[in-house]
Amino acid sequence: MIIPNSAVHLLDAAAERFGGKIAVTDEYESFGFDRLRSLGLSIGAALINSAAGGYMAEPVMVYLPKSGKCVASFMGAMYSGNPYVPIAYDMPPNRIQKIVNKLDGRGHIITDYDGKKIIEAMDVPETMRVHIYDEIINEPADEAKIYAILNKVIDTDPIYIMFTSGSTGEPKGVTVAHRGAVDYALWVQRTFGIDENSKLGNQAPFYFDNSIFDIYSMLLTGAEMNIIPEKLFMFPSKLPEFIRDNNITVIFWVPTVMINVANSGALSETEMPTLKTVAFCGEVMPNTQLNIWRKNHPDAVYANLYGPTEISDVCTYYIVDREFNDADPLPIGRACENMRVIILNAEDEPAKTNEQGELCVIGTGVSLGYWNRPDLSEKAFVQNPANPYYEERIYRTGDLAYIDDEGLIMYCGRMDNQVKVKGNRIELGEIECAAMAIDGVKGACAVFDAENERIVLFVQSGSPLVLRKFNNELKRYIPKYMLPGKLVVMDALPHTANDKIDRVTLKKSLSDID
Amino acid sequence: MSIQETISEFIREHFEIGDDPDFNNDVHLFNEGFVDSFGAVEIIHFIEENFNIKITQKDITLFPMNTVNEIAAVVESKI
Description:
The structure holds two protein chains of two kinds. Chain A is α/β, with parallel strands linked by helices. Chain A is globular and about 65 Å long. The model of chain A has no long low-confidence stretch (mean pLDDT 95). Chain B has helices at 3-14, 39-50, 57-62, 68-78. Chain A binds chain B through residues 27, 229, 231-232, 234-239, 241-242, 245, 264, 467-469, 471-472, 485, and chain B through 30, 32-34, 36-37, 40-41, 44, 55-58, 60-61.
């Protein structure tokens, strides 16, 4: 097959093959493939008509409630030859501002009227053009003009920039190329047999790279992507009902949701006869809960996928093919086709079997780096130290892993202060920076309390603080999923001999905290 | 006790809100941080048991349930 230069050609092909068949459904509306394409062309035309011009791509921030409108906007960005930047609709304006700054204030924002008011209260330069979704979808689309631009796109151009937590409080813009998303969609199609009869039950937020699975396999295969209403995830016991009522055949969810559904008891109460594929990625999936799924729905295929945002979603996978005891760890398996995984030990040499080291990834899905942060990119994306012969770029994940006797990769944990809380990737440093911005806070140290699955924030402050009110302050700077579950106020934070905050001591004190 | 009072009392006790003056029947329980996202399940469980009703995925999708009054309205429509 010919790999398209831009992934949006997948939509062109799907619109031709499937016409009005439903592509995307959300709780309010559905778009057929032809409608999705015409919306994308109009949005693309509006972006092109207001473009500053010049050689470099102009990022298109999409700041809308999670919906089919977001997907249409992503298509529009691609039709205009630009990468899209998904922004959570509930992201604090302070954090959006940091992203605008990181984009050097160039590009576009697609939003609604409420979003526009929030943007107008921020410091957004005129070089960042603000578009209202409901207005630009009526823009007449001059296809000749659009395709003249689209034909200049090459498959190493950025398709999206996803901002993830940064340890210094600055979100990092992971930039991925078209070829990564297309290559991944082809792998998803082959591995899970997704076709035009498939119905994908989308859980992943669009600012999270797991959504690439749903969006691009929908475009490639003609499957329907059903965006599950976000608020249903607060009620995990009701999710199997949604799968049943909507005839969902494939889900690709974050383990936290899988765990919550299993623990809710709903799996034994609700039949999900159409559900055939259950894949998950984003954090460790415990066998205790996976076994509840397997026991109640033994005919589904279960797959454990692994991949950091710096890859086009996934680089290793394990199709669950045998019984596991509840306490067993689940392998992350083997590299996906057209991806290579190497484990480098402390000497930067390939680790032996069963020797732990840093998991590193090579392949077409590896990110182009962090947008506008060459310093950070240089550290994480490096020459393969085991290859002196030609340029071979690897991504150092910071994840520890080993390869077992069967050749399966086993995940062991992190090398730094990055944590996963309910599937969300968080740098503890970002929480600390936000806490320091609050009046009266003289020091802050965030620690992950694995046993209770929460972040405990130690704060140096002269006055007593109440968690609820403190979190309402923090919410001005960081997303809700980063908020601490426990606040400990101290007169002084403990320090090590070289004057750093003593994380080890604070971590040890967790067992004394209720 | 009215439906509102029953729900309000449960939330105050269960989430240890006490007599916080910011709490009332119209306050957004989740945005204002009175209840975390896991607490939503406990509220639904309580109203299903206490009022002997069934809340479906469609109810949750269609009706807002962010305040005591909103939750009470859904309960009322079911009994």
